[in-house]
Design goal:
With 276 residues, the protein is an alpha/beta fold. The chain is built from 10 helices and 12 strands. The strands form 2 sheets. A 6-stranded mixed sheet has the order 2-1-3-5-6-4, sandwiched between helices. Strands 9-8-7-10-11-12 form a 6-stranded parallel sheet, with helices on both faces. β5 and β6 form a beta hairpin. The chain is globular. The termini are far apart. The protein binds 2'-monophosphoadenosine-5'-diphosphate (ATR). 2'-monophosphoadenosine-5'-diphosphate binds next to α6.
């Protein structure tokens, strides 16, 4: 008798370059779990239908990436507290009683910084650039680390202000436009915009990165991003891409689905080593 393996997938658009199938295959091999994980391209507007069909065919868990994290939030029957507040879901767990939604992006970022890079965040001055879905997913876990100051700066200042209101009860948080950053300094700047991915970054005032401060780009690609080069040109102590966060958020999803957390450093190393 042929037994069908447990089914998982990531849905997004575009999805062809997703590293998630590779990462989860490595996790499965490391932990001895039997599962299949694939990438599914979903048409815009078609998320709920695709996710429902996946569940009906026996699918057990989904990762959700751009542009469907808000659709997944609406789709879930039950939300974790973090996902509820973020307004975005990156992990769906299909259970007999319904579909649970969680968001592992922020915990993934915090773990990459605090464990993989040994960077304490308590008391630090942190700037998040961008106020879209990516920013929303990381604010609560960052605030739980008790930074000294957390500022969200965005091209559209109203969106940053809205986020500051939404999360403001969790810690010292404010929102502003880029011009309002003049005279401020940060120990860690996190790029959560899509802008610097296209070489046309939002203009941050000179002096905003403290001497030796760190730059962290939530995205990753081949070689340093324009934001990472911006940091390198301004004396950053460390300049990091989002590969570590990607693997950590995946490990957290894997734990939610399988009850076991893979060991991530060898996987991050394997992925880095395989890059051109
Ligand atoms: P994601 O889910 O990846 O965060 P998003 O929700 O579309 O994507 O958000 C994109 C973010 O990048 C927003 O903060 C956006 O700023 P606005 O709110 O002003 O749109 C920011 N962004 C995109 N292109 C930009 C550009 N050319 N200059 C500055 N910010 C930009």
């Amino acid at each position: 008798m042929v037994t069908k393996m447990d089914q998982y997938a990531v849905m997004g658009n575009p999805i062809a370059h997703s590293q998630s199938p590779r990462i989860h295959a490595l996790f499965a091999a490391q932990t001895g779990q039997q599962l299949e994980y694939r990438a599914i391209l979903v048409e815009r507007g078609g998320f709920a239908e695709a996710a429902r069909a996946f569940g009906e065919q026996g699918g057990q868990g989904l990762n959700v990436t751009a542009p469907f994290k808000q659709d997944a939030w609406v789709f879930a029957d039950l939300l974790s507290a973090a996902a509820e507040r973020a307004g975005a879901v990156n992990t769906l767990i299909f259970e007999a009683g319904g579909v649970r939604g969680d968001n592992t992006d922020g915990p993934g970022l915090v773990r990459d910084l605090t464990v993989n890079h040994d960077r304490a965040l308590a008391g630090q001055r942190i700037l998040v650039v961008g106020a879209g879905g990516a920013a929303r997913g990381i604010l609560q876990p960052l605030l739980l680390e008790k930074p000294g100051q957390l500022v969200i700066a965005n091209r559209t200042p109203e969106t940053a202000l809205g986020l500051a209101l939404r999360f403001g009860d969790l810690g010292r948080l404010s929102g502003c436009g880029f011009d309002d950053l003049v005279g401020l300094q940060f120990d860690l700047i996190i790029n959560a915009t899509t802008a610097w991915a296209q070489d046309t970054g939002p203009p941050l005032p000179e002096g905003v990165l403290a001497s030796g401060g760190w730059c962290y780009d939530l995205s990753y690609g081949d070689g340093p991003s324009p934001f990472m080069r911006w940091g390198q040109g301004r004396g950053a102590g460390r300049v990091l891409d989002g590969l570590g966060m990607l693997v950590e958020q995946a490990a957290e999803s894997f734990r939610l689905w399988r009850g076991i957390r893979p060991e991530t450093p060898p996987i991050i190393e394997a992925l880095r080593g395989a890059r051109p």
